[in-house]
Amino acid sequence: MTALRILKYVFFFCMGLAVATVTGSILSKRKPSHMGRATLLAFIGLSLLLVDMFFVEPNWIQVNHVAIHDQKLAEVLKRIKVVHITDLHFTRGIGYREKQLIRKVNALNPDLLLITGDFFDDLSQVELVRQLIRSFKVNIGIFGIPGNTDHIVMDGFSAARELAPAGIDVLVNENRKVPLPNGRILHLAGVDDPTYGHDNLNQAMFGISEDVPTILLAHSPYIFEKAVKQEIDLVLVGHTHGGQIGIPWLVYLSDYANRTPYMRGFFKKNSTAMYVNTGIGMKTLPLRFLCRPEIAVIEVKP
């Protein structure tokens, strides 16, 4: 029996017991005892918690404005809006969560949309991902890199070819010089999934001089130490889903939820900054608690 099925049974048991307790009190026309009231409140509280974890938070996408302080990169990205999303992990078709994602991204009017992998979990989702990407309205372009679950379906170069018709440039250990409307050039590098060693950072940075401000896209934060050694200005990653559970002591009990010191948020080492996005979709268990899906607006400041 899977953990998900157990949680579902617990949820329906608690809901049924709460309803039965209330109904029994009404029919008997007696006030429940203190123990009965406490039990009822506990069951109601647990039921609401499970509703929040399974239905509310997984579909309650937040927009986070992330301030990154970097003088050189700020000059390049002046008046440029950069939006970062990751880990789409479709479970069905384009449903409520995906429609909300499209609406919120387009409302931001991004110049650049950066997607750091895990587009699909199986081959049947490829066309759905294309449809989703075509729905985004972006002024300059959409760029991405492959994630670890993408590699379950196909290799990084195949993923790039499959998604290209949707209007996304998927970087596989390579870089792009992106002309910006402010007259500057953004150097954007992208590595294949570092989770299982598909990355080649030296190849991705080939041709970019050390003094040029650069954004690196990678699927997981496992790339961070390599990026620090190369003094890359900003690294954008996902993969962790923020642990999906935002209670620190509970996260520490799970090797899956606590797989890296860089689970969520902003980190800086020497001159390299990294932002770990909590992602849009979920994996293993379809729940979130105190860890909502995230759209990050990257605001680089002097």
Description:
This protein is of the alpha/beta class. The chain has 2 domains: 3-57; 61-301, Purple Acid Phosphatase, chain A, domain 2. It is built from 10 helices and 12 strands. It has helices at residues 3-28, 34-56, 71-76, 96-108, 126-134, 148-153, 156-163, 201-204, 224-229, 248-251; strands at 62-69, 82-85, 112-115, 141-144, 168-170, 174-179, 185-190, 214-217, 234-237, 265-269, 272-276, 294-301. It has a 6-stranded mixed β-sheet. Strands 6-7-8-9-11-10 form a 6-stranded mixed β-sheet. Helix 1 (3-28) crosses helix 2. It is globular and about 75 Å long.
Query: Taking Cα atoms only, what radius of gyration do you get, to the nearest Å?
Result: 22 Å
Q: What's the total count of β strands?
A: 12
Can you give the mean pLDDT? Answer: 87
Shape: globular
N-to-C CA distance = 53 Å
Order of helices and strands: HHEHEHEHEHHEEEHEHEHEEE
CATH structural class of the largest domain: Alpha Beta
Low-confidence stretches: none
Produce a short descriptive summary.
With about 300 residues, the chain is α/β, with parallel strands linked by helices. It folds into two domains: about 5-55; about 60-300, Purple Acid Phosphatase, chain A, domain 2 (4-Layer Sandwich).
Which SSEs are present, and which pair or pack?
Layout: H1 3-28, H2 34-56, E1 62-69, H3 71-76, E2 82-85, H4 96-108, E3 112-115, H5 126-134, E4 141-144, H6 148-153, H7 156-163, E5 168-170, E6 174-179, E7 185-190, H8 201-204, E8 214-217, H9 224-229, E9 234-237, H10 248-251, E10 265-269, E11 272-276, E12 294-301
Parallel strand pairs: 1-12, 2-3, 3-4, 4-5, 7-8, 8-9, 9-11
Antiparallel strand pairs: 2-12, 6-7, 10-11
